[in-house]
Write a structure and sequence with these properties.
- The protein is α+β, with helices and mostly antiparallel strands and 129 residues long.
- The protein has 3 helices and 6 strands, in the order H-H-E-E-H-E-E-E-E.
- It has a 6-stranded mixed sheet, with helices on one face.
- The longest helix has 18 residues.
């Protein structure tokens, strides 16, 4: 049975995927903690902070051959003692408007509940293909 926090996180992940597909920066911002951290899949570059991540997505959305990334959660572990959770899953990047896979791999994301909302505090990606 899916718990309420797990369902909420899965819905937020779906919102994030939709925002990426639609190149909607305004929808991405509220999903990220102000001090969010992202470690990229291939070169382990660190993108630190919401503002830096939004700038990176803005550049990505403006690319001539834009990639669309999708994260697919495989499991979500909710802490019984803190308002945090860990998401593990698979990610894939395809050329926008096609099914041509550019890269794929595994990811983990740390979520924190602030009020009624779950936001991403950290993500790490590993490129496997």
């Amino acid at each position: 049975m899916t718990s309420s926090p797990e369902l909420a996180i899965r819905l937020r992940r779906a919102d994030f995927n939709r925002a990426l597909a639609e190149a909607d920066l305004n929808a991405i911002g509220p999903l990220l903690a102000p001090q969010t951290m992202l470690v990229t899949g291939s070169d382990s570059a660190v993108i630190s902070g919401r503002k830096a991540q939004l700038q990176a997505w803005k550049r990505e959305f403006a690319a001539a051959k834009r990639a669309v990334y999708t994260r697919t959660p495989e499991n979500i572990i909710v802490s019984p003692v803190e308002p945090i959770a860990m998401e593990h899953g698979r990610w894939q990047g395809v050329t926008a408007g096609s099914d041509h896979v550019l890269a794929s791999g595994s990811y983990s994301a740390k979520w924190r509940q602030i009020g009624a909302d779950w936001i991403i505090e950290a993500e790490i990606y590993v490129t496997l293909a």
